[in-house]
Structures are given as structure tokens and as C-alpha cells.
Design a protein that fits this description.
Blueprint (H helix, E strand, L loop, with lengths): L21 H9 L13 H21 L2 H10 L9 H12 L2 E5 L5 H9 L2 E5 L16 H8 L6 H22 L5 H23 L2 E3 L9 E3 L2 H4 L4 H7 L4 E4 L2 H4 L12 E5 L2 H16 L15 H14 L4
Parallel strand pairs: 1-2, 3-6, 5-6
Antiparallel strand pairs: 3-4
Helix pairs in contact: 5-7, 7-8, 7-12
């Protein structure tokens, strides 16, 4: 008689593997962006992939991660042997900072993403990478989002910084759109969105921070989630002589192009979360002064579709006419 594992229900389809999930394909076909997590659809292989990744990353986190991240891992009580239920994660997370993980079917337009951050909601992918190629990540997955991002959301200072960033990034859209949709303003909007993406990339995703804990040597620790969820790059970011590490400079960060298909050759260092929050406040001043209306071109490219999606989301939210 056929049997199932404790993690699989009878008739489970092909699981929730990135780019191989019928549940997600159906949601996208219906136009559903915000969804629920059908936990019963995870396959045994999906749970095994989470377990392998969690086990491999544990020693690297202890060696390279910011101490607030390590505290967050413990506070969330993330399971080591299976993909976590988001409702369980949120039961631990919400009382600490008000943040919750909000499941999504895929890419979230920039304005909607910023709006979620302002509301203390973190758009969370529910699929998991293919266990046969665990170091290849074609797009964010639940390990990146839950094990990489969410532990940092347990820290009040970091959570407040995310909320502030969401509010400031929405302002970058609303400030320009109020003037009308013209080619010149669309170019300025694309420039602002490019600057926001770069700021997020070099801080929230790939940021480094000084270690000011007692008995530390003042060295560097990782707080960026792209590094915290990558077995190879977390070590590379701290140890490799090929990485250029510079004190955070806003004018450099918003003009620094990046690519997503290789280890980062340039990273920026903040002193602490208070320093990061001050940089977001400075970012807001630059938006209002128009200093982000013409940042350096190149990556990331902002498509006309992305601009249209963010404008539509902003109008639908009622923030602009």
C-alpha cells in the first residue's frame, strides 16, 4: 500500500519547488499576487532542501552574521527539519516588532513592495529552490526570505528602518506622479526607483556592519539577507581579498550599479542600525531636493512595465490622483 511521509498529504502534486509549482502557476494565471501558504503541498524533497540549507548555514551564521540576526533566529524558533509554516513564524515575529511575513505568488511591483514595508508586512515567497542545485537561486525563495530576511525583522531598530525605507520609497513615486505623467517625469521616476533599488541592494540585501559587541575586535559582520542566505557568498563577503569594502557613502551607493548573477565585488559598511536609519532619513531629504532625479544609468534597469505597474498601484491605493 502506498504511504506518505508526515510532511506529504495523499495526492500531493509536484511540491512547491521554484519554477515547478502548479499552485503558483495557477495563482499567477488568476492574477493573484497575495496568497496563502498551502503548507500541505510541500514535498518531502522540499523539506529536505530546507533542512540541508539550514544545517549548512548554521555554522556560517555563527561565524559571520550580525548578533541581532543570531538572536532573531532563536526568537523565531525556526525548524531545522522542515519548511516553516508562516503562521507559526508570525506568531513569534509580530509581538516583537509588528512585522509579519505575507505570502506572495511572485514578483511584487516596487510601489506595492514599499507599501507593504510601511505597513510592516514583508512579501514572502513560498516556493523553495531545487535541492539538486541548492546554490543556484533563479529568484528569491522561502529560505532566502524567511531564513535570510525575517530574523532581522525581530530587531526593533532594523524593523523601524524598513518601515521608514518603505515610506521614503513611496514618496519617491508620489512626489513625481503628482506633477503628471510625462516622458521627462517618467525618466526622473525611473532614476528615483533605480536609486531606491541600489540603496536596498547594498543595505538590506548585501550590507555589512561593524561588530560593536563586547570583546569584539571591531571587525565586520553580515546583516544583508542576500549574504545571510548564501552558503558561499557570506564567507566570501568577509574573507575574500577580491571584495572592496567601503564605509557607507550615500552618493556612492545610489550611483553604484549592481548585477545579480555573481558575487558582489563592492560592498558598503554601516556602523550600526542607528547609522542605517540616519542614512534613510538622508535619502528622504535627497528625494525632496530632487537629488535622485538623475542618478547614474545602468543596472538595475527600470522597465516601462515596472513604472506602469508602480503607477497603477499608487493610483489604486488612493495615494495619488
Amino acid at each position: 500500500m502506498p504511504t506518505t511521509t508526515p510532511f506529504e498529504a495523499p495526492g500531493t502534486p509536484s511540491g512547491l519547488t521554484t519554477n515547478q509549482a502548479p499552485f503558483i502557476e495557477g495563482a499567477r494565471a488568476r492574477g493573484d499576487l497575495f496568497i496563502h501558504q498551502p503548507w500541505e503541498e510541500y514535498s518531502r524533497e522540499n523539506h529536505d532542501t530546507w533542512s540541508v540549507l539550514f544545517r549548512q548555514m548554521r555554522s556560517r551564521w555563527e561565524r559571520y552574521a550580525n548578533h541581532r540576526f543570531l538572536e532573531g533566529i532563536e526568537a523565531l524558533a525556526l525548524p531545522a527539519d522542515r519548511v516553516p509554516r508562516l503562521e507559526d513564524v508570525n506568531q513569534f515575529l509580530a509581538p516583537l516588532t509588528g512585522f509579519v511575513a505575507k505570502p506572495v505568488a511572485g514578483y511584487v511591483p516596487a510601489y506595492l513592495f514599499f507599501d507593504c514595508l510601511e505597513k510592516r508586512e514583508f512579501p514572502t515567497t513560498i516556493t523553495i529552490r531545487d535541492g539538486r542545485t541548492p546554490d543556484y537561486l533563479p529568484e528569491p525563495d522561502i529560505f532566502h526570505d524567511i531564513a535570510g530576511h525575517v530574523p532581522m525583522h525581530t530587531d526593533p531598530a532594523f524593523a523601524d528602518t524598513l518601515v521608514k525605507f518603505g515610506r521614503v520609497s513611496k514618496l519617491a513615486v508620489e512626489r513625481l506622479v503628482e506633477r503628471g505623467d510625462t516622458p521627462d517625469l517618467r525618466e526622473r521616476l525611473a532614476s528615483n526607483m533605480r536609486a531606491m533599488a541600489r540603496f536596498f541592494w547594498f543595505t538590506i540585501e548585501f550590507g555589512l556592519m561593524r561588530d560593536h559587541t563586547p570583546d569584539s575586535d571591531g571587525g565586520l559582520r553580515v546583516y544583508g539577507s542576500g549574504l545571510l542566505s548564501s552558503r558561499g557568498e557570506i564567507e566570501h563577503s568577509i574573507e575574500s581579498p577580491d571584495v572592496q569594502r567601503y564605509p557607507f557613502q550615500l552618493e556612492w551607493v545610489v550611483n553604484q550599479a549592481f548585477e545579480i548573477h555573481h558575487y558582489q565585488p563592492v560592498l558598503f559598511v554601516v556602523e550600526d542600525f542607528e547609522h542605517l536609519f540616519r542614512e534613510v532619513e538622508e535619502l528622504e531629504r535627497w528625494i525632496l531636493d530632487g537629488r535622485l532625479d538623475n542618478v547614474a544609468p545602468c543596472e538595475p534597469l527600470i522597465s516601462e512595465e515596472e513604472i506602469d505597474l508602480s503607477l497603477a498601484a499608487a493610483r489604486e491605493s488612493g495615494s495619488i490622483a
